[in-house]
Design a protein that fits this description.
With 792 residues, the protein is mostly beta strands. Helix content is 7%, strand content 52%. The protein is built from eight helices and 46 strands. The strands form ten sheets. It has a 22-stranded antiparallel β-barrel.
Length: 792
């Protein structure tokens, strides 16, 4: 039996004013929230202690030492477990919607969501945002189909989002900032656990569900404890497949997506200040099909000939050891990350778009064409550090060393059983006659492999010194030796008519990333700071681009061939910020102004007709902006939250692929950086009231938004496509109401209440200049759910 919601006539479908429309709805929600719920009124405020010693303070390890977030002189957002529960957060996308100046932008041919902080966005090369599970980096380099792991918010102590370059403590991939998922530690003193279930129905789609549970406690009290957490979520599909011959729906809700995960760990305290924490994290995700829809058929309908499933699994065993040496703590973190990501993608339009250049619109072989891709990511990391907390008499410091070695393997096969008949029909010859080489075994028109080995050896130091009781200075530096090797093999008709033999392309660099800071604390409720820091991203190598197939495109950029490699890029960040707390009313404010000068930017250069691309160092940009967050508790039971971010990110000069020929430009001076909305933010209102001595009720309204952005740097670019150039803003209004009764939490919620359909992703299939149909994606439609959790 299908469960489907009625689509009201004239329902809003996103666009120019989509992100604005939620403000009025949120204001209406506020008028409901601020009136007390029936029943006994909430307790009145008690005398409230503020500052780092406040019982409400969230403790973070942003500087590799435990500190209250309010006392850390950098721009950060910390979300603890209760906050994540109240938000209904499940994925990193949910985190991005509530953190100012953190965006997650779908881009590229496959709509891969790439995180960026403060507008430091890049769809190629190394990551610009560090992604950590505890102290282990798991981000991935950008290659053809690569994507970051789909981390889920379950059994976490907190999530930390650190804005600005964090290279001195977190390495080269943190030039824009760092996102950290911090797990709960196994308890050694008492047992605790939770179990939860939820069911949700998606507008115009199916029904999904979620199950999760965690349990832990002492095996030997005070000496040995354990914790195990399980998670499974299945999100309903909402995109339907269209039969091209009849125009009718042939399959409904094809894009169901599920994730299952297991996390387990031990905490061993043998004595003498030693703590050992072995842990393992396993996750497996499966997608039945992309959530793309085809602009020919309208929202939530696609006409792909082939199913496009994927599976993505990883396992992360780790061992953390801490030794308390008195005034100094020694920490060792060892981890192995092993991931396999397999994807199938419909490539039926490849001949019509890339070989015939779109001259025969809609041409596809009756047998269809598909791509099979396998991405393997393996990595060993080892970090050792010594840390001492600061005091009035001695500086706090961190001194450490890091070793990381990762292997990234990509293989792609394009299976094309109808190629021979199309070549015969349009060229009157065989595949070998047209391309210089026959089809590979298994009707494959292309086979390619890329193997990237990246090694980093680094030493780092960070020191914080109290010059006076109110004034603190800090400095840090990281010195790294980075090595990258790329080997490539490509063959088959679409590889350019001949075989490109394996050959290594390498990069060797020794970057130095310093940082400096000054912080002033007039009292425990005020913090003012200035930070200057450098960010860095390792360079890399390009796979070969077939010069004969892409000759015309390369000439358009003033080149005979694509560059073999690209260098590192770097930035300097300048930030001034404040954090303040007030007692009457209870109010916490944090804000920061920043300027980032980014140079030698690694940028993708798309060859618009042949379908290949390469990476080069092109141009410089300046990002200026601010972020501000406010939390207020004006009356008992009522919490107001607002976060706002602004970024003006622009290229500083005109960029051409050939500096000697400005006729073929990539970006013009003053153009905005792609995939960077100028404004983003969130507002939330929550009211909690005592309904009876044992029953607490709450109501929460939350609205997140981002304004329109650009998907390409310039209208003057060779690859400019007017159909996809402008990305739409969005607005997401969510409501949640529930009760806490004894150990039970029961809630009902609605996500995307206004059913915003703004187009967040839009891309032509393979070649942007052919006018091929667009693949598009939006927010998940309105989803209504019920959830229950038991804590014990």
């Amino acid at each position: 039996m299908e469960i489907r919601e009625y689509h009201a006539p004239g329902e809003r479908s996103g666009g120019e004013t989509a992100w604005r429309s939620g403000f009025a709805a949120l204001a209406f929600s506020a008028s409901l929230v601020v009136h007390p719920l029936p029943g006994k009124a909430a307790e009145q405020d008690q005398p409230h202690r503020i500052g780092p010693d406040s019982p409400d303070a969230i403790v973070v390890t942003a500087r590799r030492q435990a500190e209250p977030a309010i006392a850390v002189p950098i721009s950060l957002t910390a979300l603890d477990a209760p906050m994540l529960d109240h938000m209904g957060a499940d994925t990193i996308s949910d985190i991005a919607r509530v953190v100012p100046n953190l965006t997650l932008s779908p881009n590229g041919v496959m709509g891969i969501a790439t995180p960026s902080i403060r507008g430091i966005f890049s769809a190629t090369g190394g990551s610009t945002v560090g992604l950590y599970i505890d102290d282990v980096p798991v981000q991935i380099r950008s290659v053809l189909f690569s994507r970051n792991v789909d981390l889920r918010v379950f059994d976490l102590d907190r999530v930390e989002v650190l804005r600005g370059p964090q290279g001195s403590l977190f390495g080269a991939s943190s030039m824009g900032g760092t996102i950290r998922f911090i797990s709960r530690l196994p308890p050694i003193d008492q047992f605790s656990g939770d179990a939860g279930a939820s069911v949700m129905a998606t507008h115009g789609g199916g029904v999904g569900h979620q199950l999760q549970g965690a349990f832990g406690g002492p095996i030997t009290p005070g000496r040995l404890g354990f914790r195990v957490a399980l998670y499974h979520r299945s999100d309903a599909g909402y995109v339907d497949r269209i039969d091209r011959a009849t125009g009718t729906i042939s399959q409904r809700d094809i894009d169901r997506h599920s994730v299952s995960a297991l996390r387990g760990g031990l905490r061993i305290v043998p004595g003498n200040g030693i703590t050992i924490t072995p842990a393992v994290f396993y996750q497996r995700g499966r997608r039945n099909d992309y959530s793309f829809f085809d602009d020919r058929y309208g929202p939530y309908r696609q006409g792909a000939r082939y199913r496009q499933p994927s599976t993505d699994r990883f396992i992360l065993p780790s061992l953390t050891a801490e030794v308390d040496l008195g005034s100094v703590t020694l920490t060792s973190v060892t981890a192995w990350f092993d991931r396999d990501d397999r994807q199938t993608t419909d490539y039926s339009s490849i001949f019509g778009e890339l070989v015939l250049g779109g001259t025969v619109p809609g041409l596809e072989p009756d047998e269809g064409t598909f791509s099979r891709t396998h991405i393997g990511q393996r990595g060993l990391t080892q970090e050792i550090r010594l840390a001492a907390p600061k005091s009035d008499k001695a500086p706090g410091w961190v001194l450490g060393a890091y070793y990381g070695r990762s292997r990234l393997h990509l293989s792609q096969d394009i299976v094309d059983p109808g190629l021979a008949s199309l070549v015969s029909q349009y060229f009157g010859t065989s595949v070998e006659g047209a391309f210089g080489t026959p089809l590979l075994p298994g009707n494959r028109s292309y086979h390619g492999t890329e193997k990237t080995v990246e090694t980093e050896i680094a030493a780092f130091a960070d020191v914080n010194w109290k010059l006076t009781p109110r004034l603190e200075v800090s400095a840090g530096v990281r010195v790294s030796r980075t090595m990258l090797d790329l080997s490539v093999l490509s063959e088959g008709p679409y590889a350019g008519g001949n075989i490109s033999l394996p050959g290594e392309r390498s990069s060797r660099e020794t970057p130095v990333t310093p940082r400096f800071g000054v912080a002033y604390r007039p009292d425990s409720s005020q913090l003012y700071y200035i930070n200057v820091g450098k960010g860095y991203r390792i360079g890399g190598a390009n796979p070969p681009v077939p010069a004969d197939v892409c000759a015309a495109d390369l000439r358009g950029f003033g080149r005979d061939e694509a560059p073999a490699s690209f260098a590192s890029d770097s930035l300097w960040s300048y930030e001034i910020g404040l954090k303040r707390q007030f007692t009457r009313p209870r109010l916490t404010v944090s804000a920061a102004l920043f300027q980032i000068d980014w140079s030698n930017i690694q940028q993708p250069v798309t060859l618009p007709n042949c379908g290949f691309s390469f990476t080069d160092n092109l141009g410089a940009a300046r990002n200026r902006g601010f972020e501000a967050e406010l939390e207020a508790k004006p009356v008992a039971g009522l919490t107001l939250y607002a976060g706002l971010g602004f970024i003006d990110a622009r290229f500083r000069k005109t960029i051409a692929a050939d500096p000697g020929d400005m006729s073929a430009i990539i970006a013009a001076r003053g153009d905005r950086l792609p995939y960077v909305p100028r404004w983003s933010g969130q507002m939330a209102i929550e009211y909690r009231a005592r309904l009876s001595p044992k029953l607490l009720g709450y109501l929460r309204a939350q609205y997140g938004f981002a304004t329109p952005y650009r998907r390409a740097p310039s209208r003057e670019s060779e690859s400019y496509d007017a159909r996809v150039y402008r990305g739409e803003g969005y607005g997401n209004l969510a409501l949640r109401a529930g009760t806490d009764w004894r150990n039970w939490q029961i809630s009902a919620y609605v996500d995307n209440l206004l059913n915003d359909r703004s187009i967040l992703y839009s891309s032509s299939d393979l070649a942007p200049v052919t006018g091929a149909p667009l693949k598009q994606m939006s927010l998940r439609p309105r989803t209504v759910g019920l959830a229950a959790t038991l804590r014990y």
